Amino acid sequence: MSVILLAHNKAAYTERCLRGLLATPYRPFEVVAVNNGSTDATGKLFDEYAALLTDAGISVQRLDFERNVGAVSGRNQAMSKVSGDFLVFLDNDVVPRTRSWMARLVEFLRSRPDAGAVAPKMIYPFPPHLIQCAGCEVSPTGKVSFLGRGEPRESPEFSRLRECQALISACWMMPATAAKVAGPLDEGYSPVQFEDIDYCYRLREAGYKVFCLPEVEMYHFENVTTGRTDKLNYKYLTVKNGLRFKNKWQRRFSREGGRSDAEMPWRHDLPTCCLEDIGELETAD
């Protein structure tokens, strides 16, 4: 098992993520810690946790870049170094709620040889812990929306296993064999945005399916790893890379029978909360 942890600054969030990895009982696994040109305490934090993780039986590799090479390149370079049978993408603003998350995702993938990737249900880290993402849907015109966004965490509709059109890479697991078939992330989406949606379509093009397993839950602060990065024109990248995705995959999503754009509006009325206002996060087995 190999976990690629991507971080660019925001050391306080990364520290919570690393604590969550330490509390994960699954063994063995390795962490490939990608310090993507951080200028804050991220490097020192990775130094400290490398020792803690090693003492806990978790091996650590480090990738330190002098500048922010972006999520796509950072992950691709990390993917070339992993050795596990399963591969996890993990952003530094994600914290496990389900302690057995790793074991459950592994069990699912082992039971489904047709699965190319599986993601947990992502929930907001503050009450009432609404759903942030339970997989993605794509309209016939190529608009991408997060399933369950803003819905109650216990919503029956988003509490069952679901085959999805796509997933977000803030947290997902895939077999190393599937990752080898799909290859590296498309550098055309560099530095970030839509590379994960594209990757899911590449997996599906190769004959795999992608799933959301909602019994596994992860807290996600949302848009910390990339969306709050200085000098990153997030809106521009969303439009530019969205057009690249549409041009590349229209032949598929236009025939998949997804809901119309009007039926999948993006909710902007969701509550927010500062990291400093969030105490210890509840976990469950």
What features would you describe in this structure?
By secondary structure, the chain is of the alpha/beta class. It has one domain (2-261): Spore Coat Polysaccharide Biosynthesis Protein SpsA, Chain A, CATH 3.90.550.10. It is built from seven helices and twelve strands. The strands form three sheets. A five-stranded mixed sheet has the order 3-2-1-4-11, with helices on both faces. Strands 5, 6, 7, 10 and 12 form a five-stranded mixed sheet that branches. The protein has a two-stranded antiparallel ribbon with strand order 8-9. Helix 1 (11-22) runs parallel beside helix 2.
Question: In brief, what are we looking at here?
Answer:
By secondary structure, the protein is of the alpha/beta class. The chain has helices at 11-22, 42-55, 70-79, 101-111, 176-182, 195-205, 234-253, and strands spanning 2-7, 30-36, 59-65, 86-91, 94-96, 115-123, 131-133, 136-138, 144-146, 162-164, 171-175, 209-220. It has one domain (2-261): Alpha-Beta Complex (Spore Coat Polysaccharide Biosynthesis Protein SpsA, Chain A).
